[in-house]
Amino acid sequence: MDIFVCIKRVPDTSEAEVSVDESGKEVDSSRFSFDINEADNYAVEEALLLKERLGGTVQVVCVDCGDVETIIRMALAKGADGAIQVNDGRVNVKDPLVIARVLAAVIGQHQFDLVLTGCMAGDDGYMTVGAALAEELTLPCATMVKNVEPQGGRLSVCRELEGGLLEEVDIALPAVLTIQTGINEPRYASIRGVRQAQKKEIKVLKIEDLEIAEEEAAGGRSSVEMQELYVPEVASRAELIEGEPAQKAEVLAGKLVKGGLL
Amino acid sequence: MDERENGFIQKHDLLGCIQCGRCTGGCPVTARSGLNVRGILRGALDEDLLQSLAGLPEIWDCTACGNCSLRCPKGLKPLDVLVALRSILVEGGVIQPSVRDALESIFREGNPWDKPRAARFDWRRDLDLKVVGPGEAVHCLVFVCCTVAYDPRLQGIAGNLGRLLNYAGVHYGFMEEGETCCASEAYCLGEEGLFEMMVEDNSELLNSYSASRIITISPHCYSAFKNQYPQLRAEILHYTELLAELLREGKMELNRELKERIVYHDPCFLGKQNGVFNDPRFILQQLPGAELVEFERTRERSLCCEGGGGKMWVESESRGERLAAVRVREAKMLGAGVLAAACPFCLLTLEDAVKAEGWEDEIKVAEILEIAGGLIQE
Ligand code: SF4
Ligand code: SF4
User: Fold this and answer.
1) Atom of ligand 2 nearest to the CA of B66
2) Whose CA is nearest to atom 5 of ligand 1?
3) Among the residues of B229-366, which ranges form H helices?
C-alpha cells in the first residue's frame, strides 16, 4: 500500500504563556518550542504500521518554508521512505483550503492508495485540511479515525463521533483518512536513526513545480482572512442564587424562562 | 540482528564474568524487582538472546546506581550491559511513551521535561546573580541542571547557590546562554547516539567559556562531566566540594542556628560513583546547633533512592515497596527532623516518599543548598 502522510509543524503551547503579538493577528511565538503536530505524529505511525503489515511505501508531505527538517528527518528515521517539502514563501499557509489545494497538487502527481493527515492541528484547530484535501482529490474521506483494518482492496475504519459514539465505515481506496490521536503509540526515532535518515531524499518543491496557479497557492481564491486575534477576557459575571433548594430552583427556572432558554 | 550487537561479548568482557554474584548481591532493586543482573550477564553470552533480554521489563528497574560495577571483582561493568540492552530497544523505537517523550524533549528542547528552551533562565529573572558569557574569564562557571532550572520546587536551590557565592565573594557566573541538558539520563536510558551528540555540543560550548572550574548542582551532571566528557578543559566540582572549601578557608560562615537532628543521604552519583562523601557532611557539621547522624547503610553502602538511571521517566512494573520509602522510614527511626539531600532527584523522590507516608510535619527533606542558604547573615 502506497501511502502519503501530511504533516505540519506547530508550536507547543502547553507550557508557555500565549500572547498576541503587535500585529494583533498572530500569536507571539518567540518563546515557543516547535514539534510535529500531535495528530500528524499518530498519522505517521499508522502509515508505518500499515506499511509493515501490507508492504508498500510511505511518503511524508509538508507545506512549510520554516525549519521543518527535524520533524521530516524524524519521520524518515522511523521508516518513511521519502519526503516532499513545499518550501515556498508565497503559499498562504494561514488558509487551510490553500494548504489542501497545494497538498492535492503534490499528491496528485503520484500513484497512491491512501492519504493520512492528523485530524486537527494543535495551533489553529481548524480540522479542515484533511476533508478539503479529499474534496480536492475527489476521494472518499473518513475523519477522526480511531482504527484502520485493511479488508481486501478496501478499508474498514472506526470513526470517533460526538457524544462518544463510534462509527464503522467501509471505505474504498484510494481514500483520505484524518487520524485521531491515541489510535496507536508513536515510536521513537533514535538519534542514530535520524542521522542515518540523512541519506533519504527530501524533495523540495516550489509553486512552479506543481499544477497550481500562483494566485491560487498564494490565496487569491482565499476564503479565510485573519482579522483579529485576542485572548478572551476573563470576567466574573456569575450570579449566585441563595436560599433553600426549592427556592433556588424556582429563581433559576424563572431566569431560564425569562432568557428564552426554556 | 543489528550489526551493532556484534561484538557485544567482547565489548562488555562477558567471558570475564565468573558468575560470583557480587553484582546481584549489591543491587538495591533486587529487593523490589525481578532484576537479576548476574543472570542477564550470563544470558548475554548468547548474542541471539540479546533481543529477548532487552524485552525483559525489569531492565528498566535499574537505577544506574553503579553498585554492581563497583563491586565486580573482575572489573566488569554490568550497568553498561543493561544500558546496552536498553539501547537495543531505543534503536528499535519501541520504548515507553514517557521515556520516548523525555528523549525527544532532550533532543528538541535541551531538557527532559518538555519545557521550552526559551524558558531555561526564567528562574533567575529578578535575582541578583552574576552571569558570564563565552570568552569572559571566570573562576567558577555554574552549570544548572535541567530539573533545577525548570521545577518550581527546585529553582530556589540555584538561587541559593548564587547567594552563597555572592556572600563568599567568589568569582563566579551562571551561563549567559546555551546551557542545555548534560544528557546523563539519556545515556542511562540507552540513547547513546543522543548522548554522544550532546557530549560533543556541550563540550564545545563549555570550552568556549573561559572558566577554570565548572560547578555543578546535580551529581548527575557532575558525574557525566567528570567521567564521560573527556574534552572538557575546566576542573569539575560538585557544589558541595566548593562550599566545603569555602568553609574550610574561612571565606564563608554559616552563622544562624539550626537546632535540628539531620541525617544525610548520599546520592549514588556523588558518593559511590565519585567518592564525594566527606564534603557534604563537613558542610552539615558546620551548621550551628545541628546534630548530624548517620544511616546504618551509609557512604559506599548507602541505599539508592531510585531517582537516577532515567527512572524519573520510567513506569516500573514492580509493586514492591519503593526504596525511598524505606529510606525515609529509616530517617524517622533515627529521630531526624531533616533528611538532607545533595541531588535534585534524591530530593524529589525522598520528598514524595515523605508525602506518601503523611510525615510532612515530622521530617523535612531539604537540599543542602536550601539549608545552607537560609543560614547566612548577608
Ligand atoms: S560481580 Fe562481576 S564477575 Fe561477579 S557475577 Fe557480577 S559481573 Fe560477573
Ligand atoms: S546499577 Fe545499581 S540498580 Fe542497576 S543493576 Fe547495577 S546495582 Fe542494580
Assistant:
1) 1
2) B19
3) 239-248, 278-285, 323-333, 344-357
Residue A81 lies in a domain: yes
CATH class of the domain defined by B3-94: mainly alpha
CA distances from B5 to A129, B58, B122 (A): 44, 20, 43
The size of the A-B interface in CB pairs under 8 A is 60
The contact set of A with B (CB < 8 A) is 12, 14-16, 30-33, 35, 70, 78, 185-195
Q: CATH number, domain at A186?
A: 3.40.50.620
What's the pTM? 0.86
B18, burial (CB in 10 Å: exposed 0-12, middle 13-18, buried 19+): exposed
Q: Is the CB of B78 under 6 A from ligand 1?
A: yes
> CATH 3.40.50 in chain B, residues?
99-246, 253-373
Q: Could you tell me if the ipTM is greater than 0.90?
A: no
CATH of B253-373, one of 3.40.50, 3.10.20, 3.30.460, 1.10.10: 3.40.50
Report residue B36 as a C-alpha cell: 537479576
Q: For chain B, 378 residues long, give each residue's pLDDT as a single digit of tens.
A: 444 445 899 999 999 999 999 999 899 999 889 999 999 999 999 989 999 999 999 999 999 999 999 999 999 999 999 999 999 999 999 999 999 999 999 999 999 999 999 999 999 999 999 999 999 999 999 999 999 999 999 999 999 999 999 999 999 999 999 999 999 999 999 999 999 999 999 999 999 999 999 999 999 999 999 999 999 999 999 999 999 999 999 999 988 889 999 999 999 999 999 999 999 999 999 999 999 999 999 999 999 999 999 999 998 777 788 999 999 999 999 999 999 999 999 999 999 999 999 999 999 999 999 999 877 666
Nearest CA in chain B to A32: B116
- Local structure of A79: helix, strand or coil: coil
**CA-closest candidate to residue B81, choices B156, B205, B188, B218:** B188
